[in-house]
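Work Package 4 report. The design task specified in the project plan requires that, given a folded chain encoded as structure tokens, an amino acid be chosen for each position. We show below one input record used in the internal validation round.
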């Protein structure tokens, strides 16, 4: 089978690998669609993502969906042909969370993730034609949800988890700084759960256009002289740019809540943080998700439309080009998808 494999910085290839067979408790998924994420781009550009560094070639991809092709021994209740996506996280070991973290499995100290070099051996992802999946990680798609949209359940789960890290947003005005794919999914998630107004801010007009299509009621083009609004009670920072923190904190109301969704650098970086103290702002981090992928599938079933986010589609064999487009700020891209199988739909 074909797989999109990163071998090192700027070295991604279409490799031929044996078609896997499902073991006990596994299914074989014939993959159809995959979404390119920032971590995929980082492995391609730098040979690393965060603190995870390539030691061996790695199949990229953790935003995937397809159809069940075969069942391993002991698997029941799932039929061949079932469309499904994947919860890409698998806890390692039996570490118990303290009571204060009950249910927050995203905070377990050791988790294998599709398409990650955090462990050696690495955990191959799903940018390939077939992938075995432990049945516990399989998520059948609801009726009416295509595999193309099902591949976006994972990043939508990230957005829904972030929304859950804030106080109630129903009926409130909310600011989202950064309107890339996660920021635009935050806009859609906030509108889905009942936010009255969602203001999206970015330096890229194309990103703001996508945010409007995803439900933003106002936009601020920070490249054209517009500024962030004032005194917003709930704010989501989705750009991950340290330079944005000062203006974002200043836009947050006194006693307000700021949720940090964009990944910040792991190295020292200048940022103006004084308002965090003087305005008594609550600043919460948001990391991946626990089981919100199930909520994401329900939201897709109930009509949350991710179509405006999808800007490009490439065949698996065009993986290198797809990564280059996704990484290019000048491309104006939203979510870049890969067709992983010939029966994609």
């Amino acid at each position: 089978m074909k797989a999109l494999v990163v071998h090192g910085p700027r070295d991604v290839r279409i490799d031929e690998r044996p078609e896997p067979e499902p073991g006990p408790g596994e299914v074989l998924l014939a993959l159809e669609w995959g979404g390119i994420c920032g971590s995929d781009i980082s492995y391609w550009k730098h040979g690393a993502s965060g603190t995870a560094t390539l030691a061996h070639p790695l199949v990229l991809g953790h935003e995937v969906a397809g159809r069940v092709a075969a069942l391993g021994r002991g698997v029941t209740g799932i039929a061949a042909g079932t469309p499904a996506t994947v919860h890409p996280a698998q806890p390692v070991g039996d570490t118990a969370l303290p009571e204060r973290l009950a249910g927050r499995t995203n905070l377990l100290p050791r988790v294998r993730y599709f398409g990650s070099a955090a462990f050696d051996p690495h955990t191959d992802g799903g940018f390939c034609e077939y992938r075995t999946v432990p049945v516990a990680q399989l998520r059948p798609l609801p009726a009416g949800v295509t595999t193309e949209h099902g591949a976006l359940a994972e990043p939508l789960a990230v957005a829904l988890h972030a929304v859950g890290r804030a106080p109630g947003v129903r009926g409130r005005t909310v600011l989202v700084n950064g309107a890339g794919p996660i920021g635009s999914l935050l806009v859609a998630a906030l509108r889905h759960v009942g936010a009255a107004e969602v203001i999206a801010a970015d330096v890229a007009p194309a990103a703001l256009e996508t945010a409007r299509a995803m439900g933003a009621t106002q936009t601020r083009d920070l490249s054209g002289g517009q500024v962030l609004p004032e005194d917003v009670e709930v704010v989501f920072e989705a750009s991950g740019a340290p330079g944005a923190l000062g203006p974002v904190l200043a836009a947050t109301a006194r006693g307000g809540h700021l949720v940090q969704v964009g990944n910040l650098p792991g190295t020292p970086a200048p940022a103006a943080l004084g308002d965090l103290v003087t305005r008594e702002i609550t600043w919460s981090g948001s990391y991946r998700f626990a089981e919100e992928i199930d909520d994401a599938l329900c939201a897709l079933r109930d009509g949350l439309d991710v179509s405006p986010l999808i800007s490009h589609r490439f065949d698996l064999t065009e993986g290198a080009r797809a990564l280059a487009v996704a990484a290019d700020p000048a491309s104006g891209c939203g979510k870049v998808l890969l067709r992983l199988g010939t029966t994609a739909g």
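The chain has a mean pLDDT of 96. Validation will be extended to a larger panel in the next phase.
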